[in-house]
Structure formats: C-alpha cells, structure tokens
Design goal:
Keywords: Cytoplasm, Kinase, Phosphotransferase system, Sugar transport, Transferase, Transport. By secondary structure, the chain is an alpha/beta fold. It is built from 6 helices and 4 strands. Helix 2 crosses helix 3 and helix 4 packs antiparallel against helix 5 (about 110-125).
C-alpha cells in the first residue's frame, strides 16, 4: 500500500484527517502533519521525513500539500528530490485526499498521482452552472389534480 503524508498550514492537515476519518474510517500508513507557527521550516522538514519513513511499506510515499510553493510543499519537494519512490502533489482538496485513501492499493505511485490530479480537477464545479444544466434536462412535470 502506498503511504500518504498530508501537510499544510496551521490546521489544514488535522482538519483533513478528521474529514477523511469521517468519510473513509481510520487509515493505516497515512500521516497528517500541520505546519503551525511554533515550528520552523527545518523542524517541519524533519517531521515530514519521519512521517514518510513511518508510512512507507516499500511501495512509495505520496505527499499531499495545501499550497504549491508554500513551506509544506517546498519541504516535501526537498524530500522528493533526495528520496527514491516519493511523489508530491501541491494544492490538494478533500476529494483528492479521501480518494487517495480509497485508491492507493493495487496501483503504482505514478498511477495514483494521475488519478488524484484528475479527481482534483473534476471535483471543482460551478454549482450554479450544474443546477442550470440539471433544470434544462428535466422534463416539465405535469400535474393531474390533487394537491
């Protein structure tokens, strides 16, 4: 199973942990690391490195971070650059993280990355546009007496 490390600013990671637990249940080989104001970026990197080691069973590790170019992403990128079988996606959302929990068995690390990128893009929708499309596709309802 691919190991997953989720990280982000302030309580992003632990917030996602709560949501993932509600959706997918408790997850093995999945760590959530918050970058809070009381730790330095060097301490963050040390925590990320340790988390990656903790979740890695030999099938690779995927870092999922909140903001591309932010400190959690940059520090995970440093790990990706010097550690084999590590990938990183910056700018993740809850559908991506929850699906990572469900889809990480039986796929390669690169397949999981591709799948999550597709999910991330398709999960963002203009709901007014979706509603308008649904309203246009429904036939008019006919009422025959009654209330």
């Amino acid at each position: 199973m691919i190991g997953i490390v989720v990280s982000g600013h302030i309580n992003f990671a632990t917030g996602m942990q709560s949501a993932v637990r509600a959706i997918a249940g408790e997850q093995e080989q999945m760590a959530f690391i918050d970058f809070v104001e009381s730790i330095s970026t060097d301490q963050l990197e040390a925590l990320l490195r340790q988390a990656a080691q903790d979740v890695d069973s030999g099938e690779g590790v995927l870092f999922l971070t909140d903001i591309p170019g932010g400190s959690p992403c940059n520090r995970a990128m440093a790990i990706m650059m010097d550690t084999p079988n590590v990938e990183l996606i910056g700018g993740v959302n809850l559908p991506m993280i929850a699906n990572a929990a469900f889809e990480r068995e039986g796929v390669t690390l690169q397949e999981l990355v591709a799948m999550l990128l597709e999910i991330g893009g398709s999960s963002m929708q203009d709901m007014r546009q979706q509603l308008a499309a649904a309203m246009q596709s429904e036939p008019e309802l006919e009422f025959e007496g009654g209330l």
